[in-house]
Design goal:
Four copies of one chain form a homotetramer.
Chain A (H helix, E strand, L loop, with lengths): L1 H7 L3 H7 L3 H26 L2 H18 L1 H12 L1 H13 L8 H15 L11 H19 L2 H19 L2 H10 L4
Chain B binds a DNA duplex through α2.
Chain lengths: 184, 184, 184, 184
Amino acid sequence: MEDIRKLSGASMGSIYHHFSNKEMLARALYLEGRSSLHTAISASLTRHSLHEGIEAIVHAYLDWFEQHADLGQYVMQAGDSEYLSAYVKVLRQKTRTTLPTETLSEQLLRWLAPYISDGSVVRLPSSLYLPLIIGPSREFIRIWLRTRHPEEIQVARDPLAKAAWLVIAAPSSQTSMLNAETDR
Amino acid sequence: MEDIRKLSGASMGSIYHHFSNKEMLARALYLEGRSSLHTAISASLTRHSLHEGIEAIVHAYLDWFEQHADLGQYVMQAGDSEYLSAYVKVLRQKTRTTLPTETLSEQLLRWLAPYISDGSVVRLPSSLYLPLIIGPSREFIRIWLRTRHPEEIQVARDPLAKAAWLVIAAPSSQTSMLNAETDR
Amino acid sequence: MEDIRKLSGASMGSIYHHFSNKEMLARALYLEGRSSLHTAISASLTRHSLHEGIEAIVHAYLDWFEQHADLGQYVMQAGDSEYLSAYVKVLRQKTRTTLPTETLSEQLLRWLAPYISDGSVVRLPSSLYLPLIIGPSREFIRIWLRTRHPEEIQVARDPLAKAAWLVIAAPSSQTSMLNAETDR
Amino acid sequence: MEDIRKLSGASMGSIYHHFSNKEMLARALYLEGRSSLHTAISASLTRHSLHEGIEAIVHAYLDWFEQHADLGQYVMQAGDSEYLSAYVKVLRQKTRTTLPTETLSEQLLRWLAPYISDGSVVRLPSSLYLPLIIGPSREFIRIWLRTRHPEEIQVARDPLAKAAWLVIAAPSSQTSMLNAETDR
DNA sequence: AATGAATGAGCCTTCATTCAT
DNA sequence: GATGAATGAAGGCTCATTCAT
């Protein structure tokens, strides 16, 4: 709190005038960060068709963290923390107005649904799409955040994007892709 | 500390007799957990050849978390935390006796090296193998730890294992696989 | 202060425009309450002769608290509090304009004086008249304020009034009273 | 809290090792003080018969405050405070082990009961005995605590004791008393 | 080696008060 | 005269750590 006060330049009382709690302040920061990330990813989704869309998601994910490393680090760590999700549970019981928590997965599923139906994307347990598409990138970023060498992220962009597609694409689309992409 | 004292049944003084401070205790717990996980994975690696080995790693990873959910949750969260890695850096400058930190990735690379050389595994930036193989499972477990429904993990085991192989295998090995596995 | 602001509907700044600080506001409320109580009692005094006057005081005291329970509670508690009396001492040294503090006792003594002289009221240390006349009622009210059952106060009115007279009246007046009041 | 720490010579943590709260510490002090006062009064009760007993109560009450002015001031003020009695209500719902709150009145009534039955003490609403007997003394002490002149208390002792008896005694016992006590 | 009461720096938070608008 | 966001000193309390036994 003292650090935040110093950095923000505001007074103790002023901070507590705007945020009822340390927890609420942490939550506000987390939600803002997550929202920023989700917005970046949403933009990629809506602008592209299947194959390019998947790769765009991964690119957007990696790029966002490269550009918001500090906030990203906080969001990543806070996303795991128990107390936050516990708190969110309470909120959900009280107010329905609050933003939903795991939108990213739902958003992704909504976008994928037609492609799953028409067979261009493999049918899997719905809880696996996000891990398979974003999981490798998340793990990569988690490690990258400790060093933050910009070049590393550039080298990883395309392999991670291609892997996401490879894992999600139905065998048929994949075969046609194998023919098309001889660079692999 | 008070919670640990209550759970352990030991006295405050006794705990401080064994661990110099809270950080060291946290570190000991973290290292023990991580070591347990690594041992489980190592066992899978050494017992199998390439394709089965990759899938065995994923299975071992998922199974270990299913069996050690609490410890797993702690290890996963502690693995991200800055203070630990910062502390580890200090330790590395002082003592070289302490166990290395990112063994899992190194261990995996050592095991994969021959297969990369002979072309049965795609050549990628070395920092990507762990994210690609374990990343989806880690992300899946991260979410699973909040609900801990046993059935979910069972449904996810095979898709995650197969995805890990798909992403790592060289296109040639992959095509042969496509012929073999008609169930996909 | 925040509570007062909410209840009064005024703004923070407005309150501080009218009262220099919290203590002054508390004092104003206390003085207003006490003044209201004293007025009620004064009215009883001036309207009656000795015996009826004493009983009227007690009745007025009890009735006032019944009708102003919240304010009464505040006045009673504030009357005890050290900081107020300490503050009043400071004020007395500075300004002589402020209202005197223990008026009730002085007022009572002025009214009793002739009756003490003519022997119809016992001669006692002057600091005892108020405790003897009002003390039981005050103690009764102090307890009553916790429950505030209206019936209790009605049952207590007459016994307390008669006791006040009994304690104050000279033995001679008392004997004549004993003859008159055969209901006792 | 800081003041208490300084006065007690103990450390902050040590105080909180013994009392869970500031409120609990305040409560402990209050209960100890009240208990000391009640013990002093109980002793007077048991050692005497009716008339002397009543006067002994008053004497004990006054003497205790004279000897424990600071503690007495605290007990008197705390006894009024709302938060304490509110807290006691909560406690009563939880634990029945805690000491009772208004023992003094109950204790007094138990002692008076036989005398009320045999007609030597007036029959009144039970909630009036304590106010009538102790009320004047309490009010006197409340004022006295601001000056604490020892002589004042000595002058008040007998009149207050006699008034307590006068108010409680049945008319018959009183008449006989009037004959006996020619000094009045 | 074990105990657990004691320590005290530092945490989060409150709240009477101020002041620019 | 009114407003209410901003202020910051001070409060209650926690908790990692120590130390006498």
